[in-house]
């Protein structure tokens, strides 16, 4: 069995810390997802914060570099995982080209603007290096199932899709923009920008906006002020049913049934409520990476999807704010 060598750049929250001192099924970080896979060998990591590097060296017996370039020059990797801050991605990805890995797995976004994303995707394609982006819900069976339910018509006509988010149009809303493209296709029609709030950086505002598809589906993004409060909900309302992802990360499914109080009218009735297993996302992503390297699957979240996301982000940004 082929075992691929992995290098990890960035060992912060999503790189390493979310799993530190935790014992859960699955993984919440790049480090544990690759470490737990029998198909990969984590060979070295890079992290600027010396105290985190020392924890990894002591507990996992791995070399921890403070400079990712030194790590790359002293080791050979089949797969390189990038889990650094958003603004650093473009520079690191372009640097990785010369080291010729087979595949790079990068946290979203690939860059902070569409021009850099386009150039990065072009370079990786030219050099025949696979590039996977961590849009988490692409790796979760629960969200694949929602897509299948929508496409099957079980919800009827989707009249409204509402998304609550915070911490930037690029940083967090891009997860949901990817879902919108996945579930409903690319929007070429009506967009109205309602407001702007602060994001994680001056270049990444949190934007509230509405979109409308030619088939009548209305999509609303409601942006909240950036805090450590985790609040992100999705509400998909159809003529035959409804699916809601609530604040506890549970998927609620509803069907249309008779209203027992008002004869002749109907209501949505809750039929199922199941938690989303977010700890399975990164292990599923790693499994998909292995199968792609073995020629058995295509990438679930290829870099090309980011081009479509940024096309939509650009259209949203270009709109003037429509005061209500």
Task: Offer a few descriptive terms.
single chain, 8-stranded mixed sheet, Dihydrodipicolinate Reductase, domain 2, globular, 324 residues, alpha/beta, 6-stranded parallel sheet, 31% helix, 9 helices, 2 domains, Rossmann fold, 14 strands
Could you give the topology of this structure?
Blueprint: E1 4-9, H1 30-36, E2 40-46, H2 50-60, E3 64-65, H3 68-74, E4 79-82, H4 89-96, E5 103-107, H5 114-126, E6 130-134, H6 141-152, E7 158-166, H7 169-184, E8 190-201, E9 204-212, E10 218-224, E11 234-238, E12 241-245, E13 250-258, E14 266-275, H8 281-293, H9 304-318
Parallel strand pairs: 1-2, 1-4, 2-3, 4-5, 5-6, 7-10
Antiparallel strand pairs: 7-11, 8-9, 9-10, 11-12, 12-13, 13-14
Helix pairs in contact: 5-9, 7-9
Structure summary, number of beta strands: 14
Low-confidence stretches: none
Mean pLDDT level = 95
The first-level CATH class name of the largest domain: Alpha Beta
Q: Please write the string of helix (H) and strand (E) elements.
A: EHEHEHEHEHEHEHEEEEEEEHH
Quick structural summary:
It contains 9 helices and 14 strands. It has 324 residues and is an alpha/beta fold.
What report would you give on this structure?
The chain has helices at residues 30-36, 50-60, 68-74, 89-96, 114-126, 141-152, 169-184, 281-293, 304-318, and strands spanning 4-9, 40-46, 64-65, 79-82, 103-107, 130-134, 158-166, 190-201, 204-212, 218-224, 234-238, 241-245, 250-258, 266-275. The strands form two sheets. It has an eight-stranded mixed sheet with strand order 8-9-10-7-11-12-13-14, with helices on one face. A six-stranded parallel sheet has the order 3-2-1-4-5-6, with helices on both faces. Helix 5 (114-126) packs antiparallel against helix 9 and helix 7 (169-184) packs across helix 9 (304-318). It is globular, with a radius of gyration of 21 Å. It folds into two domains: 4-136 and 280-302, Rossmann fold (3-Layer(aba) Sandwich), CATH 3.40.50.720; 141-276, Dihydrodipicolinate Reductase, domain 2 (2-Layer Sandwich). The model has no long low-confidence stretch (mean pLDDT 95). By secondary structure, the chain is of the alpha/beta class. The longest helix is centred in the middle third of the chain and has 16 residues, at 169-184. The chain contains nine helices and 14 strands.
């Amino acid at each position: 069995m082929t075992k691929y060598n992995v290098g990890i750049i960035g060992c912060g929250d999503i790189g390493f810390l979310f799993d530190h001192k935790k014992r859960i099924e699955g993984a919440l970080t790049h480090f544990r997802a690759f470490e737990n896979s029998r198909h990969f060998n984590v060979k070295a990591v890079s992290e600027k914060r010396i105290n985190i590097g020392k924890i990894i060296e002591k507990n996992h017996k791995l070399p921890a570099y403070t400079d990712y370039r030194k790590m790359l020059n002293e080791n050979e990797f089949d797969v390189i995982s990038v889990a650094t801050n958003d603004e650093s991605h473009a520079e690191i990805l372009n640097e990785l080209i010369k080291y010729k890995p087979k595949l790079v797995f990068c946290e979203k976004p690939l860059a902070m603007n569409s021009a850099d994303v386009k150039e990065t995707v072009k370079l990786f394609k030219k050099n025949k290096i696979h590039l996977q982006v961590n849009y988490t819900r692409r790796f979760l069976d629960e969200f694949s199932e929602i897509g299948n339910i929508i496409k099957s018509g079980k919800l009827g006509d989707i009249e409204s899709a509402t998304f609550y988010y915070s911490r930037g149009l690029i940083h967090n809303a891009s997860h949901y923009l990817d879902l919108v493209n996945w579930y409903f296709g690319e929007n070429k029609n009506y967009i109205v920008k309602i407001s702007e709030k602060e994001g994680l950086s001056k270049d990444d505002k949190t934007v509230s906006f509405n979109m409308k598809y030619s088939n009548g589906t209305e999509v609303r993004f409601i942006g909240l002020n950036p805090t450590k409060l985790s609040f992100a909900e999705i509400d998909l309302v159809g003529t035959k049913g409804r699916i809601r992802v609530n604040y506890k990360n549970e998927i609620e499914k509803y069907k249309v049934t008779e209203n027992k109080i008002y004869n002749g009218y109907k209501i949505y009735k809750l039929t199922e409520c199941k938690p989303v297993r977010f700890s399975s996302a990164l292990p599923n992503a790693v499994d998909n990476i292995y199968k792609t390297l073995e020629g058995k699957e295509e990438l679930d979240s290829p870099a090309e999807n980011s081009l479509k996301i940024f096309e939509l982000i650009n259209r949203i940004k270009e709109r003037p704010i429509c005061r209500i």
